[in-house]
Amino acid sequence: MNEYKIFINGDFVDGRGGIGEVINPHDNKPVAKYHIANYEDVDLAVKYAREGFEKWRNTPINKRIRILQNLSKLLSDNLDKIAQIESLNVGKPISSAKGEILAGINVLDFYIGAVNKIMGETIPTLPGLFNYTIREPIGVCALIVPWNYPLMLTLWKLSPALACGNSVIIKPASWTPLSALELAKLCKEAGIPDGVVNVITGPGNTIGSYLVQHEGVDKISFTGETKTGAEIMKLASNTIKRVSLELGGKSANIVFEDANLNDAVNGSVWAIYYNSGQSCEARSRILVHKKIYDKFLSEFVEKTKKIKIGYPLNKDTQMGPLVSKTHLNNVHKYVEEGINQGAKLIYGGKKIEDGELKDGNYYMPTILELNSSENICFKEEIFGPVVVIMQFETEEEAIKLANDSKYGLAGTIWTNDVKRAIRVTNAIRAGSITVNHPLTAIPGLPFGGYKQSGFGRELSLDAIDLFTEKKSVIYKYTEDEVNPWRL
Ligand code: NDP
User: Fold this and answer.
1) Is 280 a catalytic residue?
2) What is residue 1's predicted lDDT score, i.e. its pLDDT?
3) Binding site membership of 104 for ligand 1 (Cβ less than 6 Å)
């Protein structure tokens, strides 16, 4: 079995916090071992990341670009290998794993293109004074990543961080540490100077929170649960760290009576069940106009039944297992509680207990019909293949239901009425709204949340703001005497 060490200052070194096992969600058997960092390892990573920062910020821009281009090429060359590791570790279908890594490479390429376009401004100011601004890297950035899209989300953060001249310490989720460590190898091979990229693995509530509080860390870029994000804000406040948070969601998917029903059904099925529903922007609340409700529901159920659930490494598989047994049990508890609170189970609602999938964390795609937005399954992020469906009568009611959430990450509208699409888009309080298709995360376009879904926008040029400081330089260019107090 492969054993993965932590990566500090360009070397794989022993973690001094013990050894953990990575489990394959398909059969719950171990696939690899990994070293766990202790506090001294974190201190070391920070020390070298500080040195790495000085090296990287002073690396000429064209050289930085070439090194990052090497990394992009190496990721492409190693696509099959890394996708296989990601698929084994997370349980994602191999086709999805490849697609996501390619999407991550596109993000890297986008920010490589931005490296030499991180510009300042000249701002008109007081007579005799001349101003310009400079964008400078923040310093050492801790990139804390969840388990649902481990490599892709790491690249969402790493790419702008490095493009802006920062050094990083990556902290992957404990369930899925492997692809970040594979990435570390490629960073070294690409020529990224030692200390610029470091990867430490270990529990979030110990070494993660230690990293967040560390005096030598300047910025936290976090993706994960809302309650962890709240904790991180608190922990980071003592040292006034820059923080950006991509958190949970409970996104609405509104189907109006004039929608193209075939597209709406296909898109809605994908928007909830992709990655077994373990997506922050999963459209997990479907709201359907009363007139087409029965037809939509029956077609949605039929298409749900057709999803190919199976072994993630089979190339035809569309839905794999959930990431862990613990997570599977949490998802099922939500479904049970939702039913206790009055939800009607239309399809699924149980673990797959027989056949060749019985040892894995496979959960049936699940549809719950609701008549109240008070139901726990309407309110809470379940993060599994579970969708709630409700009917509405008026546009106002649809908007009210869509906004009836503490989250505000995404939303989808299905309608052929452009005026209505604009009205509803304007009314929904969420970071990404899609009209007549389900894709929310596209390199170059801002991605992030309103309300308790977080703050800061990734994937777009906005991320440059998240990984730079702005310095304002003010010159006097006249010969006038400097004597503000008329002394
Ligand atoms: P968690 O918040 O549990 O963990 C995310 C990361 O934070 C992990 O690396 C974890 O380490 C670490 N961590 C946990 N506690 C702390 C702490 N106190 N200090 C520092 N680090 C900590 O989220 P999940 O891994 O369960 O991910 C799922 C969540 O991510 C969902 O809520 C989902 O909506 C959200 N998400 C949001 C996205 C967005 O863009 N808005 C995108 C994707 C996911 P460890 O694994 O060791 O606990």
Assistant:
1) yes
2) 82
3) no
